[in-house]
Each structure stands twice: as structure tokens, then as C-alpha cells.
């Protein structure tokens, strides 16, 4: 068995417009590169090889908490050293904490001869994610683990994740550097929703799932509308409406807020369109004088995976 | 072109558990047999060849209103005589009015050289359905028109119906002879729902659509739970919980209230299981001393269709 493993763990889109808290998609880029090395010394030690100000105390770090959860299921007296190079900017809304949590447990599992199933690894990673978001959820973890398009059908009483086929799609994401904390983004959500709106929302969820599974791009586009969460959160992301308008004009199929924001994603049929859409998204924030990053890349068919081992 | 056409128009399940107001499924039986004959005399004349006490005034009859809507789009000065043999009991919750509305416009369209698209026919049929239910909706009309498994993604601003593949499934339905009026069944619905429950519901909608499209029977079964509508309506249908319990014990995949009730449906993998499940469903109402009918049959892959013409 290897002594040290390097894992590539992808950014992810969660919610996907109408599918708040349940749908997600893996991206090929950006990603975190996570090296985990097995040690005789018990416990977890974390080092960040990047400029972001993230905790290195394992009990306060998503990768640390995920690995500690995994270690509790391991009888051997071992530990892990972790080096995390974050390609995903924390707080951007494309699954930064999920990528670190998933990547670290996938690496540790490789060190342990892959004794755990992916569903067990999801449970460990969820423990890590809870540190960052304050809630137990898997809408970014599921696509980071399985790749492609995923549904978290239930967390309780039994975790039920369904990995689903996705057609070829190119994603354009803009991350305007506005701070939107996940906990704040949750506070603006309504406690209750009118039944009629809920029906429209689940009609779109049905349409989106059907659009993915039948590779019907028009249906995907028609179904991306979010009647409940985006109206509550749009005030947190100035430029959102204009960004969508320009992206659609540039040929995007559709999109919305990524996760709890502030990133905005758009799905596209081709790389060329996705590049134009990325530029269109960026132009809105350039005009607003808000710093931003854009990412353009395909949907990733694989989740977190071992790149090298020694 | 034919002078007289006989159409077979199927019963349908709407809602399908979690998919309130948007999902539906066509049954091979029961069905309405509808003969429409073109006349030189303008307008619509209706004759019911069955024991049910339904209006024959075309302005108050679902088939009549649907045909009058169709005639308004026809420049010729023609009319229709309609003979309806209802195999579907009115008020049973398996799309009785939708079957009559759809079957009559499909027949009229055949008489007119099929000049209207199925989507146009759905619009005419919806005008008819509104007479029976008091609301414009298409969750029974869509499967009656297209067959198989259908999603009504939107009624406004543009009617958007998606016909989806369904795996081989056998349906068992029990119709306990309790009166549940659609309008009454709508009144017990909550005006608003907690966001968390709405999320669980659309997770199940996503699972159900994915289960159908990937022929994953277990996923279909797990996803059939309805957290919003069934809890509100279960008091209208004594025996529902016991019927479900016995059906699952007899091997059903899952099920729930059909439409606004009182019928209860269960989906099954085989005809033999569906027969046992039908008997189990019936046994509950036999013990309660409530008269009932059961139907067992496969999902119909086709919607309303011409059987003979002359």
C-alpha cells in the first residue's frame, strides 16, 4: 500500500437553480490538490500550501475533521499529515470546503487499501463540511465524490445519493469578490413557501433531471429557473440579473447562483460558447468595479481521484 | 377522411406521490370508448351510453367543452355527435374527466385529417377539464394524450409538457366508493409549506424522475413518499395507511393517493405481484365494509388512440 497519496478534488456546483439542497455537478476546474501521508504518530496535522487564511487546527479545518471522523473508524494507531494546495478559493460558492473534505478522505482511503465505500467516505466528509457551513449536508460533497451530476435524495434516515449521467456540458463560472457567508445566505431564506411556488419549483426539478438524463439541452435551460432561493438571495449579489442577461445573450443554456453564492454559473453546449459566456459574466463585474475570477471548463465525469502515490 | 371515429382513451394516475400537480402516468385499463361522428349541423351533441349521471349539455360536459374549444379553431361550419361509454368511473381519481376530454378531441382531430398537434389538443382538453375540476390543469390530460410517464413542467407562460420513458410497470388501483370531490380535496391543502419539507419533496420528485428514466425500481420506490399532499388528504381516505402497508407487504414498489383520491395506486414489477397487491388493497376496504373496485394492468405506452373509423 502507498505511503503518500496525491488527490485531485474538484470544485462543484450545488443547487443548480431549482434544485436547492439536493442537486449538484462536478467541474473539471478549479480543483484542490491534496497530499495525504500516513504517519505512525496518531492524529492529523494540516499544512496549507496556499495564500488563504484557513485554520490548520484539525478540529477546526474541514479536511481535519473529515480525517478525524475517518480515523475513528480505523482500529490501527495511525495518523495523517496533510498538505492542501487550494485551487478553489474559499467562500466562492463552488464547493471549496467539500473539495478539501472529500479529497482528504479519498486520499486516506487509498492509503488504507480502499477499505471504505464511497458512501462511507461521504459520511466522513459531511462531518468535515459541517464545520464550514454549520449544517450537515452533501450537495457539494456528492458531486465531488462521484463526479458528474448528482442527487442527494435524502440525508435521513439513510443517506441516499444518486449519481446520474450528464450530457457534455461546458460550465462558465464567475466569482465576484463579494463576501457571502453560507450562514448569512441561509438566513435570508424564507421559512415557508407558498404551495403554488413549491409546485413550480419541483416541476423545474423534474424538468432539470429529465433534461440531464435525456440530454435535452432546451429542457435543461427551461428548467433552470429558481422561484424560491434566488429571489431571496439575489440582493446579496449585485449584478446577478445583468450577468444572466448577458450570458443568455452570449448563448448560455441557463444558470443561476452557485451554491450560496456569490459565484454565478452558466451551462453551455460548447467550449466556444462557454468562453464567450465567461467573458460576458466577467464584463458585468468589471463595469461594477468588483474584482472577479472566471473559470471555464467541462463537467467532470469523475469525482476526486488519486493522481499519484508513492 | 373518416366520417365517424372510435377512440380508446385511458385512465391516468396524477401526482404519483411526490409529484403533486406535475407528474402523471397512463394506464392500459380502465378506459373510455368515445365515438365522435361529424355532422353538418354545427355544435356538439352528447350521448352517454353508461349508467353514470353525467351532464349531456355540451357546455357542462368535459367532452363537450373540449370539442367546443376545438370547433372555435375550425373555420368549417361543422358539428359533432359524441357517444361516450365510460369505462372509468367518474370521481374515482384516475382521470375520468381527462379521458373523456382527451378522447373526444383526439377523435375530432382524426375526423379533421389530424390538423392539430397534440399540444393544441391538450389546450382544448384543458378547457374541458376545467369544467370538472374548477382549475386549468393538465396532470391527467398529459398522460392521457401522450401515454407513458409525463411531466407538466409549466402551464404558463407557455404550456410545457415532457413525455418521458417509463420502464415496464404494473399498476394496481383500488377505488373505494367514498366520495372525495376534487374541489374539497384541494381545500384541505396547506397554503404554504415549510421550506425544509418542500426540499424533501423536490428531492423525491428528482428521485422519481431519475428512477423512471434509468429504470431503477428501488429508486422509484424510495422516491414515492409524499410529505405535503398525502398528510393533508389522508383523513379523507380511511384505510389508506393500512392499504399501503398491506400492498408493500405483498411486494409493491410503492404508491399513494391517485390524483385527489379516493383511489389508491401501487406500482409493481410484475403482473403477478400487481394481482396480489390489488387483492391486498381490496381486502382493507372489504374489512371496512366499503364497496370498492380494483384495476390491475400495465402502464400504457400510448395515449388516446383511434381504434376504428368509418
From TrEMBL, chains A, B:
<dbReference type="Pfam" id="PF00288">
    <property type="entry name" value="GHMP_kinases_N"/>
</dbReference>
<keyword id="KW-0067">ATP-binding</keyword>
<dbReference type="Pfam" id="PF08544">
    <property type="entry name" value="GHMP_kinases_C"/>
</dbReference>
<dbReference type="GO" id="GO:0005737">
    <property type="term" value="C:cytoplasm"/>
</dbReference>
<dbReference type="InterPro" id="IPR006204">
    <property type="entry name" value="GHMP_kinase_N_dom"/>
</dbReference>
<dbReference type="InterPro" id="IPR020568">
    <property type="entry name" value="Ribosomal_Su5_D2-typ_SF"/>
</dbReference>
<comment type="pathway">
    <text>Amino-acid biosynthesis; L-threonine biosynthesis; L-threonine from L-aspartate: step 4/5.</text>
</comment>
<dbReference type="InterPro" id="IPR000870">
    <property type="entry name" value="Homoserine_kinase"/>
</dbReference>
<keyword id="KW-0808">Transferase</keyword>
<keyword id="KW-0028">Amino-acid biosynthesis</keyword>
<dbReference type="GO" id="GO:0004413">
    <property type="term" value="F:homoserine kinase activity"/>
</dbReference>
<comment type="function">
    <text>Catalyzes the ATP-dependent phosphorylation of L-homoserine to L-homoserine phosphate.</text>
</comment>
<comment type="similarity">
    <text>Belongs to the GHMP kinase family. Homoserine kinase subfamily.</text>
</comment>
<feature type="domain" description="GHMP kinase C-terminal">
    <location>
        <begin position="211"/>
        <end position="285"/>
    </location>
</feature>
<dbReference type="GO" id="GO:0009088">
    <property type="term" value="P:threonine biosynthetic process"/>
</dbReference>
<dbReference type="InterPro" id="IPR014721">
    <property type="entry name" value="Ribsml_uS5_D2-typ_fold_subgr"/>
</dbReference>
<protein>
    <recommendedName>
        <fullName>Homoserine kinase</fullName>
        <ecNumber>2.7.1.39</ecNumber>
    </recommendedName>
</protein>
<dbReference type="InterPro" id="IPR013750">
    <property type="entry name" value="GHMP_kinase_C_dom"/>
</dbReference>
<dbReference type="InterPro" id="IPR036554">
    <property type="entry name" value="GHMP_kinase_C_sf"/>
</dbReference>
<feature type="domain" description="GHMP kinase N-terminal">
    <location>
        <begin position="66"/>
        <end position="148"/>
    </location>
</feature>
<keyword id="KW-0418">Kinase</keyword>
<keyword id="KW-0791">Threonine biosynthesis</keyword>
<dbReference type="GO" id="GO:0005524">
    <property type="term" value="F:ATP binding"/>
</dbReference>
<keyword id="KW-0963">Cytoplasm</keyword>
<keyword id="KW-0547">Nucleotide-binding</keyword>
